UniProtKB/TrEMBL annotation, chain A:
Its EC number is 5.4.2.11. InterPro entries: His_Pase_superF_clade-1, His_PPase_superfam, PG/BPGM_mutase_AS, Phosphogly_mut1. PROSITE patterns: PG_MUTASE (PS00175). It comes from the Eukaryota. This is Phosphoglycerate mutase. Transmembrane segments: none annotated. Keywords: Glycolysis, Isomerase. It catalyses: (2R)-2-phosphoglycerate = (2R)-3-phosphoglycerate. Belongs to the phosphoglycerate mutase family. BPG-dependent PGAM subfamily. Gene3D superfamilies: Phosphoglycerate mutase-like. The keyword Disulfide bond does not apply. It comes from Durusdinium trenchii.
UniProtKB/TrEMBL annotation, chain B:
Belongs to the phosphoglycerate mutase family. BPG-dependent PGAM subfamily. Its EC number is 5.4.2.11. It comes from the Eukaryota. It is an enzyme of class 5 (isomerase). This is phosphoglycerate mutase (2,3-diphosphoglycerate-dependent). It holds the Pfam family His_Phos_1.
Amino acid sequence: MALGKAPPAPGETGLGVTALDVSTLETYGTHTLVLLRHGESEWNLENRFTGWVDVDVSEKGAQEAINAGRLMHEANISLDIAFTSYQKRAIKTLNLALEELDALWIPVTKSWKLNERMYGDLQGLNKAETTQKFGDEQVTKWRRSYAVPPPPIKDDNPYHPKLDPKYKNIPKKQLPLSESLATTIDRVLPFFRQTIAPQLRKGKKVLIAAHGNSLRALVKILDNVPEDKIVGLNIPTGVPLVYRLNRNLKPVELPGHAELISGAYLGDPEWVQAKISGVKNQAKAR
Amino acid sequence: MSKHATLVFSRHGESEWNVANIFTGWVDVDLSEKGLGEAKGAGELLKAEGLEIDVAYTSFLKRAIKTCNLALEAADQYYVPVNKTWRLNERMYGGLTGLDKKETVKKHGADQVQIWRRSFDIPPPALEKENKYHPCHEAKYADLDPKDLPDTECLKDTIARVMPYWEETIAPALKAGKTVFVAAHGNSIRAIVKMIEGLSDDVIPGLEIPTGTPLVYELDKDLKPLPTSLAVEPLKFGRYLGDAEKIRAAAEAVKNQTKVG
């Protein structure tokens, strides 16, 4: 238990209303896949474009991760294996959630293929300032178009991934200078097929703790969400999204599933809905 | 003889049952606040030394896993792959599991407890399967071959189940020239250190490995250790990172856990 912290206000955690339990879930499909988007990061607080920059979760983000673990615990979810990115906000979210589940011992595979979308030369820039500089329409295009990437990161940008030791083993031509959602999917999909899918087929219950866009990529892959819809699909932070897949790894539509997708979020449905609507107004210049 | 690979051990720091002075073994107790700090401190020492870890190994027990994660985080290497195995678990303490250390001394006498704690091949009495602390009740051991699941272990037994992991998994990584970090427990570290240092059966049980202080070995391509003048007796090849006096004091403190009065 966290020392000296006031308990969260009722309605802030989504806990206590178990809409879904593993016993219900297991009547749908064969395989379990849980997706978890990391919570608030330090740069969310500063309203800066993050991408591959390795910022930490904020205090609130850490609490969101712990809460996610509790939500899974409440639903009696057990896990066999987990995947995450190279980025600490996702890894930490994973470790905090696993600790709540008493599952810190399960194997974890980290891969840059699950990283957030790489935000090119926008990385590090304040969102409101960027909007003032380039205009609402251009920024919206970079943020929410399917195939238009932000400008490639400049060679002298301090946030260039070539300066980051975690990417020293990636061949230069694979190292992105900027990504759209389309190119993010291009590197998530093979990883899902080659590395994650075989575990699911073995009957392992899989948790993937990752980022808004790498999870959008996975959801698009799983549910075949159309391009114009996936860009606007908000996957709320810190809310486990449970998928049940059939033997062919196709998702089975779950009761209480979210709009456009087959998976269902854990927790109080009202709380979940409020969270889904919550990601807004970050780029509106003040 | 030139350096081909680096092997770094870190014994997890103070646990909740260290504080309560209870024999722990395989019980999955957490780190105390102090232990969390020791893990972070270990990572800071790794960073200060300029060690770039390629791969980490740890046990199934959260006090070691959290030490591993916190140390890597403090060393700015949180993205390093971490492999967890029951084979790096602490020695399983059999029937002493869950018992207070000083009470056990009062009950059985210091000599008997010393034998159970520090003999090479005399294990504590077996833990009954009905005991709530028996690992047979835990999901994390569900995939183990039943004959691998211990009711008790002496150090010799611990070594026997650690070394296959060394041979099959850790040694090949070192042979490939990797810098390896092992975040584990007093006895699982003793197992590997015994082999590297060539320590005898009667010396190894008394080797105190300070907590939270990285122990570094440089190995040649045949995984023979390179000697160092910085080694602290009885070690010839391993050197501790950090403050030498603190290291000596910490080793003494572990010895004193069963001193009564």
